[in-house]
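Why do we care about 3D structure at all? Because function follows from shape, and shape follows, mostly, from sequence. That is the central idea of this module. The next example makes it concrete: a single protein chain, its amino acid sequence, and then its structure expressed as tokens.
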Amino acid sequence: MDHHRPGRPRPAGPGRRAGSDPTPDGRSDVSADEERRLARVALTWLAEPGTRVVYRLVERLGPVATLDLLLDGGSPDGWLHSTVAARLAGGDARAVAAEALERADRLGARLVTPDDEEWPAQVADLATLRLPDVTRRVDGETAPPLCFWVRGGWPLGEALDRSVAVVGARAATGYGQHVATELGYGLAERDWTVVSGGAFGIDAAAHRGALNAGGLTVAVLACGLDRPYPMGNAALFDRIADTGLLVSEWPPGAEPLRPRFLIRNRVIAAGTVGTVLVEASARSGATQTARRAVYTNRVAMVVPGPVTSAMSVGAHEFLRDNPKTRLVTGVAHVLEEVGRIGADLAPPARGPQRPADTLDDDARSLLEALPRRGARGVDALATRAGLDVRTAMRKLSLLEELSMVVRRDDGYALAVPVTPRRGSATATAR
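And the structure:
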């Protein structure tokens, strides 16, 4: 696939569906396709996204038969049966789904299902996601999505194909926001999609970094696309929709309830190649995104922070508790983890190169044998360096050519760099 991305998005027509081919008798199968799509929306309304029982039923029976089964009270799970009954007390599932599709159309958003060409195939890996030591239902219900609501021109699957998630604390420090902005900018500049959750702090900084680089960024929300949360980022969401994508599993009008953020995090983790955790407090939800990345066999990365900062505690503990997690300090390290094998290696960290770094052992020994002040004869230098006189003379000539030593009447001395006096012409020029 060609990953070069121009400044403006390429439209992804909502009508590109796999199920709309004509039937053998020549009639269009659009009505059956729309019925399947409507059923997926209704199922997402009846039970929260990620519900494993619903996902397994859809895989076995299809969305329409699964919806009919649940509406008839035939749920194989007691908890799901109670949930469906409670939701049905608030309205008709198919009518609610139809209204959601109409609202999305007015919003300029589209529904994307596994039948569509732009569906991101990698989220299917959530079918095998099992988090250890689960005590909350929300940590156990991590099945793949049934559908996505998308606002923006890019095909969803293409946007996520070369993507990295950058997540972290809402109450980010200046250090964390700076790092997230640099990561977002650098990744976008290299044609990687930057994915995050649209929250204050690290999320917003990563999105803005990508936007400032003229790159592609995707915000995965925990509410309806027409109810941006937090409201303080409404302008940011509009910018993202103009050149990138806003994505949600919840239909227009859905509220940003607390458990939905954890449900949403599994999509950020599985939909990307890797997740970078920039800052996280001891109880940060961002660590849950990184945790889901680890157990979906994605690359999990952590940016270290000051050990005195409360916003680094969760990130550091996550790094300690997960041996597969990689420590990264910038874009080069991230690309080394998620990029092409052998093609995106980060250069090793080095200090400034000094002239003496190029010397061999004999020349270095002679240099060390020279006195800090004054001069010393060849014989004395050779003895002190443990070299024969002939070798010493040859190496001293080399050091002299490199302007590292000077020859005097009484022997050789270290060359003293000229330090211009304050007020001199040289100092003024500098």
